[in-house]
Amino acid sequence: MQVKSFEEYKEAWRKSVEQPEQFWEEIAGNFQWRKKWDKVLEWNFKEPRVEWFKGAKLNITENCLDRHLEKNGDVPAIIWEPNDPTEDHRVLTYRQLHDKVCQFANVLKNNGAKKGDRICIYMPMVPELAIAVLACARIGAIHSVVFGGFSAQSIADRIKDAECNIVITADGSFRGTKEVPLKSVIDDALVQCPSIKRVIVLTRSHTPVSMIKGRDVWWEDEVKKVETQGNPECPVEEMDAEDMLFILYTSGSTGKPKGVVHTCGGYMVYTGYTFSNAFQYKPGEVYFCTADIGWITGHSYIVYGPLSQGATTLMFEGIPTWPNAGRFWDIVEKYKVNILYTAPTAIRSLMSFGDDVIAGKDLSSLTKLGSVGEPINEEAWHWFDEKIGHGNCPIVDTWWQTETGGFMISPIAGVTPTKPGYATLPLPGVQPILVDENGKEIEGNGVNGNLCIKFPWPGMLRTTYGDHERCRQTYFATYENLYFTGDGCLRDEDGYYRITGRVDDVLNVSGHRIGTAEVENAINMHSTVVESAVVGYPHDIKGQGVYAFVVSPGKHGDEEITRKDIIMTVSRIIGPIAKPDKIQFVSGLPKTRSGKIMRRILRKIAEGDTSNLGDTSTLLDPAVVDEIKAGAL
Ligand code: PRX
Asked: Based on the domain organization, do 568 and 444 belong to the same domain?
């Protein structure tokens, strides 16, 4: 599946465009199927309907676990580094992981789970999270993992939207010196969620929890029951290639997060292929992705991609700056990590601690580096290259999205010549195109446009859960016959792609997608707030920060207190990741006569660039702009 030279890459890309079905059929041949497909691809972006490997039968866990057992059962599948470096780490070989997944799959079955059920997972970064995910996939249940930093309200919204019947969680999780009471957050969420019949609780932090009779059970007790049943093997559920594998919620430009749906066959092929190819993974290498499994990066490139390729994947429970900012480098040294895949925010943050925290750390095991989630600035790219890679490690700057399932535009390590700040070229199988506002293709090089994809790839989303029309509207209706990414992009003189950022009302804060409308809805829930407008502004570490303009005539007394209250409200409603960095109280928002907020103006003010605010003649009350400008933070 790996191309070994730039010439081979170009040849593979050409073939993937000229004969896509043959191209993907060959790649799919590297996986284990219970029944082969009747047809490689059927598609129509109008509906949209995309079906890959139609008629094929498989189970992704057979590919991630069972097929490695005979030859590689003793190879480490997961290495786990705990939050506290003085606690013992854990290693699970492929055989051990297989056995634990079977065991927990039987726990799920004993608790009434069956194919097609939706199961919400809200857990710390411990091996049991990967086990829970794989156990769902083994029995054909659809997992919906919710990142451990989301609030009770966000969890409830997601559980209700997917009509989940089971939650898997833990008593609490550790993040640096903090303890997050996961079970208690779940309890708050479940007040609104009558569909949940069972909560399975892992012991992790020993935080006191309340267990509700008839609803809540302990993970460990349930596992014991399976052990007394003699630990039977759990045969895989035979899944159709187009059966749902999971739902993962992501923010868009409207207030409500959408449940992106991925299916079994195409997603497996796409994540396995892109992992193997872009990282040029070689057996025996230790691969460390610093993301959380609560995001797509963790789904595709901690769990499914690496495991389907028999790789050793390292999971880290903690945060990069605790006990000190040298933690990543300690981990690299301790496990002789070969491939490190992280985010520009982490790089910029660690950079800011200076070189002392790297001094004396043996990083010589590293051979390849990766970056994901947001545009990487040149300074961070060079620091990563020089200080971490010592100039010897290719950096793969992977551009992709929750919706794409896997890497789309990315260098292939050691094969594609890289350029700082550039995701470089499309991977084989990916056909990007740039269009103008009207959907007209912008041809040639040295051009900017909106990034679209004109042909399906196996890892793409199939729908948004429970609302196919929303999927059509969001991704396939802006430009006819194209998948619209929501990103702006430059194609330079060499035909290299550089992602310039979102062109819709979505922020990218520390590599996490946050919809401005979602944050506004949360702010507006505060009792003194009449309305608000949220925009992004450049932030040295986070990439983008959250800037909120708030109309709050009722705020009494201390502005500082109201500010704190609003921040608390956003934390409660969405989660701490969406907290505004800046809140400016204003008497009104710049609106057109038809009542539309002119965000362009607010963005400029937030960016500190007020020299030219563009045309303000359509404003209902131009004076409001002067007031906002004068009070800018
Ligand atoms: O704007 C792009 C940015 O992150 C968005 C996707 O966010 P999410 O679905 O949360 O997935 C993040 C992990 C894949 C994209 O629309 N983005 C992602 N990777 C890059 C990027 N921007 C620039 N360069 C990247 N390598």
From this structure: no
Give the end-to-end CA distance of the chain in Å, rounded to a whole number: 52
State whether 416 and 516 are in the same domain: no
Note whether 12 and 109 are same-domain residues: yes
Ligand 1 atom nearest residue 512's Cα? 10
Pocket of ligand 1, candidates 419, 424, 487: which has the most ligand atoms within 8 Å of its Cβ, to mutate?
487
Return the best residue to mutate from 300, 372, 453, 505 for the ligand 1 pocket (most ligand atoms within 8 A of CB).
Answer: 372
118, part of any domain: yes
How many Å lie between the centroid of ligand 1 and the Cα of residue 372?
7
- Type of residue found at 329: W
What is the C-alpha separation between 492 and 292, in angstroms, rounded?
33
Q: List the structure tokens of 47.
A: 């509906």
CA of 413 to the centre of ligand 1 (A): 19
242, 263 Cβ separation under 8 angstroms: yes
Q: Is residue 479 over pLDDT 90?
A: yes
- Structural domain including 148 reads 6-448
Are 516 and 427 within one domain? Answer: no
Site residues for ligand 1, CB cut-off 6 Å? 250, 296-297, 372-375, 397-402, 423, 485-487, 499, 502, 508, 513
The residue among 448, 475, 491 that closes a domain is: 448
Count CB-CB contacts under 10 A for residue 283: 11
Asked if residue 569 is part of any domain, the answer here is: yes
User: Has residue 482 been placed in a domain?
Assistant: no
Q: Does residue 440 sit in the same domain as residue 575?
A: no
Q: Measured in angstroms, how far is the CA atom of residue 299 from the centroid of ligand 1? A: 15
Q: 523 and 441, same structural domain?
A: no
Segment 311-364, tens digit of pLDDT? 999 999 999 999 999 999 999 999 999 999 999 999 999 999 999 999 999 999
Q: Is residue 479 part of a domain?
A: no
Residue 44 identity: N
Closest CA to 426 of 26, 4, 12, 45: 12
Per-residue three-class SS string for 45-61: CCCCEEEEEECCEECHH
Q: Which residues pair with 537 in a beta bridge?
A: 545
For the stretch 40-49, what's the b/e string if a residue is b when 16 or more beta carbons lie within 10 angstroms of its beta carbon?
A: bbeeebeebe
526 token code pair:
């505060």
- Report the C-alpha gap between 265 and 387 in whole angstroms: 40
pLDDT of 361-417, one tens digit each?
A: 999 999 999 999 999 999 999 999 999 999 999 999 999 999 999 999 999 999 999
Same structural domain, 238 and 347: yes
| Choice from 341, 427, 508, 516 to test ligand 1 binding pocket (greatest atom count within 8 A of CB) | 508
pLDDT for the residue numbered 618: 82
| CA angle at 43 for the pair 438 and 117, rounded to the nearest 5° | 110
Work out which ligand 1 atom sits closest to the CA atom of 409: 26
Q: pTM of the predicted model, to two decimals? A: 0.97
